[in-house]
Structures are given as structure tokens and as C-alpha cells.
Specification:
376 residues, alpha/beta, Aspartate Aminotransferase, domain 2, Aspartate Aminotransferase, domain 1, 2 domains, 7-stranded mixed sheet, 3-stranded antiparallel sheet, 14 helices, binds pyridoxal-5'-phosphate
Length: 376
Amino acid sequence: MLSPNDSAPAYSRNAAPFLHGPESEAMIRAVEAGQYGHHDQTERFEAELAEFLGVADVVAVSRCTAAMHLALSAAGVGRGDEVVVPSQTFCATVHAIRAAGAVPRFADIDPDTQCVTAQTIAEAITADTRAVLPVHYGGRAVDLTSLKPRLDEERIAIVEDAAHSFGSRHLGGKRVGTTAALTCFSFGPIKTITSIEGGAIVPRDPREAERLRTVRLLGIRPKQAERIRSTHYPVDGVGLPYHLSAVHAAVGRVQLAHYRVVADQRRMLWQSYCTALADLEGVRLIDVDIARTVPFNAVVRVPDRDRVFARMKAAGIGVGVHYPPNHLQPAFRGWTRPRPLPATEATARELLSLPFHPAMTIHDVTAVVEVLATML
Ligand SMILES: Cc1ncc(COP(=O)(O)O)c(C=O)c1O
């Protein structure tokens, strides 16, 4: 096991990729085989992801942002539609909605989990809502079971931003990606498994899978091997270069094979933070529902966050902020119909992400919490 940049203390980084060793060799093999685009490695990665999740099919793409753009389009979301989404997410979620031609309608969150709930989503739905896009913040699966009958009746699709939640489970035990929603994963550098950059969509049926595969490869349906045998190949519709290269897929396959090591380590670190923070007055750990979740981060709410952030940084602790709310971002302010988001706004100014990545040890967690305790 190794982590890049080993010389600095692990807690000096807020997050970091985690490599097991064979990734480099797998990548070199793909490079030497000349597999730079969509190739066999990509299809093997898709099959292994489907097997891991226990679903019929998975479509690999270049990133989770691309996955959400394609999934929203597959759900029929387009110009003039609204998509209900938390403001408390990475800006990529909102960009994907804009890329699909739709506008976000921001929903408030549960302050304890930083996730939308069935109720906050229900309150935001209008006659123009075509999809809801819950974000599994910190890895915690959002449960929309109670809202499902209304969504079905009003023909509103569920597209899940599961960038943080690969491997997590819903209430009832089903893995994220197996509840018949269009689920979008990220395999970016600091995710539970990484393909350096990458993502995937769990489609709802085989026809949708085929459509997604065509669109992610510039609308070209035949496989590369068939394409090069003919003087003509059909371009069957609008598409984008959203495919996952074989070099990335080769890394993702190694990471998937080592998933358990990282999942256990992430759970152990989160539990260690939970224990170490228990007696710290005024500090509240965002609850990821650890029994079902592979945590992506360890986020606390602290008073006077900006001062604590600056002092922790000065002390060499890799703190971060996930996320400044999107409804207040200059890029997104103009065209959204404003709604009150009291929990989002009240808690956003308190959020502090503590260092959290699998190369850390329990001693790193103790060191971080000891420093934090001196700053309150
Ligand atoms: C909540 C969330 N959604 C979407 C994304 C975008 O993922 P990608 O970088 O794979 O496009 C991220 C990336 O960190 C994220 O944290």
C-alpha cells in the first residue's frame, strides 16, 4: 500500500489518492498495448462494477459530471425543465443540470447529515420538475422511499449523485446503485475507488444502457473492432466524447479489486474521529450513518469556522470546506428562482472538513483532534 507524497504527514492533506501498488503496472500495460481510448479494459471494468454492485449493467464514462449530464438527458430532462437538487454539493452537480439545458431548484437539507430528505425535496417540487437529484453527501445514502409513489405518479425521475457513496448501502441494506434510480458514480482521484479520473452510470434497463453507450461515444453505435472493418459507420444521434479510456479503466480495475481494504480503513478512521470528538464541546460531527456507509469525508460543524480554518491551516492540518453553497455562487445566482434554504445557509458557515484519507492512521486522527481542541 502506498500513498503519493509520503514525506509529508498524512494529516497535512485534506484528502489524497490511495494506491495499492499494481496500478502503475496495469497502467503501463494498457499504455504499451496502445489502448488509449474506449477498449476491452473499459468493458471489463464495466462488467466487474456490475458484478460488484449486483446489477445487470454499468456504463463507464469519463467523470461523474459527464455521468449526471448523460443520466439527466436519458431521463428526458431538457430545456425549461427544473431539477430539484441540494445547494450543498460540489458545483459539478449543478453544472451537469445546466449542461442538460435545465435549471436547478435548490432544496434544503437536514443540518445533521447535510443531505436532502424526502420532505425537503417534496417541498421544492413544482409543475416544471422533471427530475430530482439527491446527493449522497459524505457517502450517506438519501432515502426517498416515502416520496417514490409521488415521483412515479408525476413522472419525475431520480438521478442520484453518488460521487461520494460507492459501496454504501441504503436503509434496508441495498447497495447504492441497486434501487432502480439512475445512479452516477465518480472515480476521481480522492474517491473510494479511483481510476484517476472516471465515472459510471447504472442504467435502468438494457435499452437505456445501449443509448447511454452510444451517446458517450459521439453517437457511434458499432464497437471499435467492427468500425475499423468497414468503410462506413453510422453516427446515430448527438453524442459527446464522454467515454472512459482503457488506461483509466485499468487503474480502476485494480482499485476495485482492493475495495475492501479501503472501505474498512475509511470506516475505522471515521469511527476514530467519532470517538475522539465526543467530548469536544461545540463540535458536531456530520452523521454519515456509519453502519451502512463507506464515508467519503469527516466533516464537523464548529463555531467561528473561518478563524478555526485559518489556525488549523497555519498549524499544518489539512482542513477543507465541503462545500460553499451553490445558490450563493455568482455562476448560479442569476437564473435560479430563489427559495429559502435556512438549514443550508446556517450550517454552511460552520462546516469544516477534517483530514480524511486511507493513508491516515488512528494517530493522525488523534493529532488532528488535539490541535482542534486548542482552537475552540
Ligand atoms: C458531490 C460531487 N458530485 C459530483 C462530483 C464530480 O465528479 P467528477 O470529478 O468525477 O466529475 C464530485 C467530485 O468531487 C462531487 O464531490
